[in-house]
């Protein structure tokens, strides 16, 4: 597991092994940790192996000036502890609250941010081919599905002219900060279609247009297949 990944909380025994390594002034061998915790060395070795694999502990060979085989010792990896709870929703509320407080420019700023990310997130076509309107809506639908919107294109005949968004991955935030979250969602769709050079645009997003869905409006702009 990468050190950048979120981790599950440690078991009490593994946490005790990690604490023993952290609290030590010098790197510790397996027997050193076992003595401090009064547990079997094999138990310590098992937990140390897991802590090394998770990137919490470093394993090294101790420099020795005397005869005999150098010891393998362990030290806590320096850096912020990556265990514990995360509060990303609180961070999102702080940032959205600040953006919403900026006044009349907040909606435009949120839409622009969404457009930039829509360009980045959509799966592009090999240049220089441009998609048909129907194909572009398919790519848009795939991006929205990956983001968790549970999209459903709707329309008579050829190209869908609406997309029902049956799930909002930011529902609680949208209910509290809809004036910036919903424009950001519209911007995501606009940016994706612009990046595809699609002959269709996302012109409007109607939040909670139906009891169980928001509704995005699409408009064909040039000849579509």
UniProtKB/TrEMBL annotation:
Residues 16-59 form the HTH iclR-type domain. One of its GO terms (biological process) is regulation of DNA-templated transcription. GO terms for molecular function: DNA binding. InterPro entries: Tscrpt_reg_IclR_N, WH-like_DNA-bd_sf, WH_DNA-bd_sf. Pfam families: HTH_IclR (PF09339). It comes from the Bacteria. This is Helix-turn-helix domain-containing protein. It comes from Streptomyces montanisoli. The lineage of its organism: Bacteria, Bacillati, Actinomycetota, Actinomycetes, Kitasatosporales.
